[in-house]
Design goal:
By secondary structure, the chain is of the alpha+beta class. The chain has five helices and four strands; from the N terminus they run αααβαββαβ.
Length: 154
């Protein structure tokens, strides 16, 4: 379904990205409208698939997940069965927050959040026991400088 997005829709989306838990009244006030038209627009954007799953952002470090690794994977396997097994292994591991297939020398990059280096090693050992990879490089993030899920709507 295709949907036209106008300036008011963009303002609503920006407000929802900033804080999806705010009241409809607060969103309407921020975008200069009333509640009913804002609710109808939000519903239209949800129905069109522009607004997806709503969730809560947790503080990983506050919960003890102090290590964030970016894992670069090269593979010599490109068959459909290998890829299916690999992708399922990634989906089955909650430590994998993001996974991307890349163009270039690296085939995949993963963002893996764990409590510590020992937990990363357990993740790594489990992954390579399930699926063959040619080369794995793990990069430990020393500091998160910026992290956002917000799209630049303006």
């Amino acid at each position: 379904m295709s949907v036209r997005i106008d300036a008011t829709d963009r303002k609503i989306l920006a407000e929802l990205q900033r804080d999806a838990g705010q009241s409809l009244e607060d969103i309407a006030k921020a975008v200069g409208s009333s509640k009913t038209p804002v609710w109808n627009r939000i519903r239209k954007l949800r129905d069109a698939g522009v607004i997806g799953q709503q969730t809560v952002v947790l503080d990983a470090e506050a919960l003890g997940f102090e290590a964030c690794f970016f894992v670069l994977i090269r593979t010599s396997e490109h068959e459909a069965d290998w890829q299916k097994t690999f992708l399922q292994a990634l989906r089955d591991r909650p430590e994998v927050q993001e996974a991307h297939r890349l163009a270039g020398d690296i085939d995949y990059i993963l963002k893996v959040r764990v409590k510590n280096a020992r937990a990363y090693d357990a993740f790594y050992q489990a992954l390579i026991s399930e699926v063959r990879v040619h080369n794995v490089t793990a990069l430990l993030s020393m500091e998160e400088i910026k992290a956002t899920t917000a799209l630049p709507l303006e």
